[in-house]
Specification:
mainly alpha; 0% strand; single chain; 20 helices
């Protein structure tokens, strides 16, 4: 039980530090788990081993972050997104509600490949400039993209369903079919949320205009720089750059090459296409290197964090013990209770720990009380998956923050309870329509 207590306290400290914004994410994800490791009785040798193991799990993601952020930064520099922004403003006629609704629809389509990283890579560079130009809160963008993508992520190739299917030894497609109606309902709820958020943003923006204040927003650390040097724009090369962007995204979605390699090649081609001298090429890399390396260092810190929690067995201990403290009279509702707390569990457990450690325990206990395994599976999937993109344990979230220049703590404060509310609502709907038996 001591590992469970140490693990939970460590994670709560990390989340509290991230939300407070008083220290950098690197400090929050390095020092608490290192201290926890020594408190748990492990040595410096163990620390090195766990770091190596954690690094192996995130190094490909860190490499992708570096070159993805540089690539999209260059695309922004050369003015590729400017016509897209102007066209979207024209089509939406500057209607804040329409932009919010479009965000949900684009994110849903982008997530069809099952990759959260590619969804953020497609949506944020395209939509963030529009949000900033119209004066919309960029955290609304993360909320709407994250919620929509998470609901679509119930597809068989999305990850969570594959994990559950492997535990139950069942066909993943058969597991998915009953969830389609939940996905449809979930997307309708996301569209309703988009309308609500759009109306709220419209009211706030109109109030600023009435006071004579400028509504446009500038984010210093994002790939979008509204004060960028227009001399870097390459209007004659816009179609070549557009084709390059489409090819890179296509390779990413198809899985033809590792994502990091695809963006590395993309950066090299973007530099040679748009900038003729070595100095100009290096200047573009230097311009975006700070943001790219900052996010890569955070991912490496997250690798240490996950390496320690996995290597010491803290995540497994949390998963095994969390259901043992449940009062007996609630045992027959165990699957629904775990589902209700699925989004908070996203802050405590990695996806693998949730589905490979916690789920089998809950499923076995549930079976002893006559709870069908599929009901347990659906309760835990629906309860947890909506919160995927508000968790600091999800690498795709850090990519989104790196691309947008936003902060994890503020994202958690803004999105967490909206996503938790959506999760519980979908769970209750699943119970009401008989997908989950109680």
């Amino acid at each position: 039980m001591s590992l469970t207590i140490i693990g939970i306290v460590t994670i709560l400290i990390i989340v509290a530090l991230l939300i407070s914004g008083r220290v950098s994410p690197i400090i929050a994800m390095v020092l608490p788990p290192v201290v926890a490791l020594f408190v748990a009785g492990y040595s410096f040798t163990d620390l090195g081993t766990f770091f190596d193991e954690g690094l192996q799990s995130v190094i490909s993601v860190a490499v992708m972050f570096i070159f993805a952020i540089i690539f999209f930064g260059i695309m922004q520099d050369v003015g590729l997104f400017e016509p897209i922004i102007n066209k979207m403003i024209a089509l939406s006629k500057g209607n804040i509600v329409v932009v919010a609704v479009i965000t949900v629809l684009i994110a849903a389509l982008a997530q069809m490949d099952g990759s959260g990283a590619s969804t953020f890579l497609i949506t944020i560079p395209a939509l963030l400039p529009l949000y900033l130009r119209l004066g919309m809160n960029p955290y609304v963008l993360l909320l709407l993209v994250g919620g929509s993508a998470a609901i679509v992520n119930m597809i068989p190739w999305g990850g969570p369903l594959g994990r559950v299917a492997s535990v139950l030894k069942t066909d993943v497609t058969e597991l998915w079919y009953p969830l389609i109606k939940i996905q449809v309902i979930g997307l309708l709820l996301m569209l309703a949320l988009a309308v609500f958020m759009g109306l709220r943003e419209k009211k706030r923006i109109n109030a600023k205009k009435a006071r004579g204040e400028s509504v446009e927003i500038t984010l210093k650390n994002s790939i979008v720089n509204e004060e960028a040097d227009t001399s870097l724009h390459r209007p004659k090369l816009i179609w070549i750059n557009a084709i390059l962007l489409i090819v890179v995204i296509g390779i990413l979605v198809s899985g033809l090459l590792p994502a990091g390699l695809a963006f590395l090649i993309g950066v090299s081609l973007a530099l040679i296409i748009n900038f003729r001298t070595p100095k100009a090429q290096m200047d573009r890399i230097k311009a975006h290197a700070a943001n790219a390396l900052t996010m890569a260092s955070i991912i490496i810190a997250a690798g240490l964090f996950l390496g320690i929690l996995n290597g010491t067995g803290m995540l497994t201990a949390i998963a095994n013990n969390v259901v043992k403290i449940m009062p007996d009279f609630l045992a027959s509702y165990l699957h629904v209770i775990i589902g209700i707390f699925g989004v908070p569990f996203d802050l405590l457990l990695s996806t693998d720990a949730y589905y490979f450690a916690l789920f089998p325990v809950v499923e076995q206990i549930g079976m002893s009380f006559g709870i069908d395994s599929l009901s347990t599976a659906y309760a835990m999937i629906i309860g947890n998956i909506v919160g995927t993109f508000v968790s600091p344990l999800a690498p795709a979230v850090w990519l989104a923050l790196g691309l947008s220049g936003l902060e994890m703590g503020k994202h958690l404060r803004f999105s967490f309870f909206w996503m938790w509310g959506l999760s519980v609502t979908l769970l209750l709907i699943a119970v009401a329509i008989g997908l989950i038996h109680v």
